[in-house]
Task: inverse folding
DNA sequence: CGATGACTTAACCATATGGTTGAATGATGC
DNA sequence: GCATCATTCAACCATATGGTTAAGTCATCG
């Protein structure tokens, strides 16, 4: 399924809005893992972790590949790029924070 | 309510995972707006937009202030910073994409 | 080929989300 | 003080989410 740019941001931000999923991405940053390896540290069923992996996959943040009887999962970090760019648009606002405050205070005086 | 760093990422990423809310932030990037002004371009009730604004507020991405009989809403972009930093951790992966591909192909040869 | 291991899928449940309409709140204007 | 405007809150609804357990799939091992 090909997603529009907005839909891709929807699914990426949604995927990131869960601590379990963010933790999975952190783990994958150190290398490939099987589903079982990913699941072990989490206090929930394998099926639940499998669902989280599915959410990450549908956001294209990871890729799953069969290797023998295992599914190996690896990070696809480049799918984060549009999200980072979307946010980066606003970085000028937090950088200019002090400037804005100054202007505001300037306004108050008059 | 003070949120943990993880909970703040949860609420910020969740707030961003909706196109209406992202659009509202874009509008606010050009300046303060009343709730009514924000609602007008959207094809949904004022109450629905009010709910979206509430979600953005609980993520601290905006601030609401009473001004006469209006509530004026303004961007609080600095709350995006932790989200951007979280993502930025992964930028090395998409920057090293070609390197990784090279290494992978190198491995295949042997 | 039958059992085992590694997942995934299905069915189910409780809670959350995103929308609606209609009543409530809280200034402001006569 | 009463009406009106701007907005929020409450109640409701349909669908989505995040978890569970149990059954299904698929590759490997004996």
Result:
């Amino acid at each position: 399924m090909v997603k529009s740019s907005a839909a891709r941001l929807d699914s990426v931000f949604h995927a990131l809005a869960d601590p379990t999923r963010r933790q999975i991405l952190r783990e994958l940053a150190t290398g490939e893992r099987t589903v079982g390896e990913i699941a072990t540290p989490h206090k929930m069923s394998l099926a639940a972790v499998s669902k989280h992996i599915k959410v990450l996959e549908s956001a294209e943040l990871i890729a799953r590949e069969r290797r023998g009887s295992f599914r190996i999962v690896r990070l696809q970090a480049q799918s984060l790029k549009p999200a980072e760019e979307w946010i980066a648009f606003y970085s000028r606002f937090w950088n200019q924070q002090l400037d804005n405050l100054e202007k505001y205070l300037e306004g108050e005086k008059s």
